[in-house]
Each structure stands twice: as C-alpha cells, then as structure tokens.
Amino acid sequence: MVETNGRANGYPVNGRVILHIDMNAFYCSVHEAVEPDKYKDKPIAVAGSVELRKGIIVTCSYKARARGVKTGMLVREADKLCPGLILIRPDFDLYRQFSRRFMKITYEYSPLVEAVSIDECYVDITGSKMFGAPLEIAEMIQKRIREELHLPCSIGVAPNKLLAKMASDMKKPNGISVLRKRDVSTVLWPHPCASLFGIGKKTAEKLKRLQIHTLGQLANADERLLSDRFGVLGPALKRAANGEDNSPVNPDKEQSKSIGHATTLPVNYTDRADIHRVFLNLSDQVGRRLRRQGLVAETVQISIRDPDMKTITRASKLPEPSESADDIYRAACHLFDAHWKEGLPVRLLGVTLQNLTAKQELAVQLDLFSYQKQPVKEKLNQAMDALRDKYGEGVILTAGMLGNDPSALIRNTKRRGTSLQMDHLRLKGLEEEDY
C-alpha cells in the first residue's frame, strides 16, 4: 500500500519513525506470566517487606490499581483500600531475564534500540520498511511479546522520542497509539503542562505563576519570558510543547558499572578526623555523580595508599541500596577505621560505588520513620545539586568538610566568584532540621 500524501507505506519520506515500548505493570505482569494459577487477574503488588506487611508499594497490577492502590503507597494503606491484596517479594533477577527477552524480540526489527529502563525502550524503525508499515511492526512486536512472554505492553508510534513516549501512555494496557506532529495541537495542547513528559510538578507550578496552565499556552508563550524564568530550559520547554525533539535513539547507551573518585593528599595524613573529612568530600562527589545517572549503589569500596605507594582496597555492602552521601560516608569511615591502624600515614584516599542499579528498579524497604524522612533527604539532595549545577561544585560545603576553619567557606565562595549564602537552602524550604 502506497500513500500519495508524502508517505510511503506509512513512513515519512523525510523524517524518522520511533516506537516507544512500555511494558505494563512489568514486575507484577512477570509474576503473573510465571505463576498464572497463583496471580493471574488478581490484585497483586510487589513490596519490599512482605512478611511484615510494611514498607511501600513498588508497583501493583491493574486489578489492584482499580481498587485505589498506587505505587509509593504505604502497604498498610493499600491493605485498607484493597482487602486480600497479594504481596510479592521483588525478584530482580527474574525481571532482568524477562527484560532481556523482550529487548531481544525488539532487536529483531531494528538494531537501533535504546533501553531507558528495565521495562521500556525506544526503537528507531525508520530503516525497517522490509518488515512492513510502522503500525504493522508495532502490532507484530506487541503480539510476539504477548504470545511468547505472556506480557502486556503499550507502544507509541511517532516521529520523535518525546511524542512516542507520550503516545505509549495513551492506551494502557495493551494499546498502540500514533501521535503525529500535526496532531499535537488537538491531542496535547488542551492538557495541563504537568502531563508532558519531562515537566515535573515544581516546573508546572512555576508555569502556573506565569499564567501558563496548558500545553497550548506553553507552546505559544513568549520565549523571552520563559528564558528569563527558566534560563536555557525555557526555550526547550516551548519546543517540547510544540512536539519538537531531535534527540537520536542511542543504542550504545550503557549504565555505569561503577562510580569512583580518588584524591592524592597534599601531605601525608595521620589524623583520623582529617581523613574522615576527606572521605566526606569524596562521598559527596560520588553521591552526586550517582544521582545524576539515576542510580543507587549496593556496595562501597575504599582505596588507601601509603607513602610507599602500597595500596589496599576494602569493600562492604550497604544495609540497603542508596544514593545518599551520608550512607556512603558512614560506610567509608567504618571501613577505614576497621582496616587501617590509627596513626599510620596516608597518601591517597578513594571511594568507589559498585553494584549499581537504576533507582526506579529499586524495591524500597523502609520502615515508617525512614519512609517519612526519605522525601526530605531527596529534597535536600535536589536543592544542593541544583545549586552546584548553577554555581559550581564548591559552592556548598558541609560543616564536616570545613573542620576547624569556618573561614574556609568564605574563601571558597570568593574563589568561585559568587556571594551565595546559606539562605539559598532556606529559600527552597529546607531548614536545618531537615538534615
């Protein structure tokens, strides 16, 4: 079938065709596929602490969602909404097996596959005409995943990654949606700004203060106004609201296997407090890099080198995967104190994070106290990261990094060419007790 309106077999003559494949309720769907007699068509949820029935819901089936259960909800709250809810302990080895299998099916239709998480990927099928029209390819992939793996998935078909992502969310589960550039004004513009992928709650609230409530208003907003309020992000927001996205499907995108940082000390250190201060700095740096990549670490390793260039490494597993510099720092100091005799000189120190996992894959196992504190810690991390992105790495120092010389903060601030003060944290709603 050949169309005459500038498209051949559903492919644009000039342009791309991108699929976004999103596995529906992936973790729960995998358990249903493996043990259908036990879980099929039942309200189920994956949660961290199954035996104690506490912690939070990592994900839940559509049956459970229909009864009000949501990801991130406390288990006891979900129990009230959905009596008889079946809780399942997470099995990430199993999820990865199924992830590899659905990715393998996808690779048979294009080598340009970018996995963005364990349960979703982008596929550039511009050069896949031999398999049929774009909709036919989407239907074939969806059918094979359903028949071979017994898993549901939704697929978006569009000329770029942004619109493909938006399209895949339109029909769940088991839907296929097409979102063309010319459909943006009628399909997307009436919706609130927060509905666009990449616009978070805080950005949407800032847009509302500018009287920009819908994507249509954002698409037609004054670019100078957006630039003044959001910097370089402003024009990007306007382009996104107009359905523009030139980012390529990157098949070589790979998750880091480890993240580390080491420093050679200006003199040999022997005082434990000074050494701990270095570990605090190193932990802060590797934690920041970890968060940038959306990862959490299970293992902390330290490196210690003496003046004779002899190096030892020691590692320990964290109680639970973390992105927090505090957790990394405590583990590093404990390893050092346990494995290095007090008073021996140190020439180099390093911290490396290993056994990394995408944060969204993490089954969070928290008691109630930790659950309440976690959003505060994340809020603090986000605020500090944002300030460093804008003003430089040295703009924020903790008291532990300063040691006995508070004037170091003033000197550091002057070197960085900014008069930033600690009030910036309070302006973001972070008081001292949030630490």
UniProtKB/TrEMBL annotation:
InterPro entries in the record: DNA/RNA_pol_sf, DNA_pol_Y-fam_lit_finger_sf, DNA_pol_Y-fam_little_finger, DNA_polymerase-Y, DNApol_IV, Rev_trsase/Diguanyl_cyclase, UmuC
GO CC field: cytosol
Sequence ranges assigned to domain UmuC in this UniProt record: 18-200
Note on cofactor: Binds 2 magnesium ions per subunit.
Biological process annotations from GO: DNA repair; DNA-templated DNA replication; error-prone translesion synthesis; SOS response
MF terms in GO: damaged DNA binding; DNA-directed DNA polymerase activity; magnesium ion binding
UniProt record similarity statement: Belongs to the DNA polymerase type-Y family.
Protein name: DNA polymerase IV
Name of the gene encoding the protein in the UniProt record: dinB
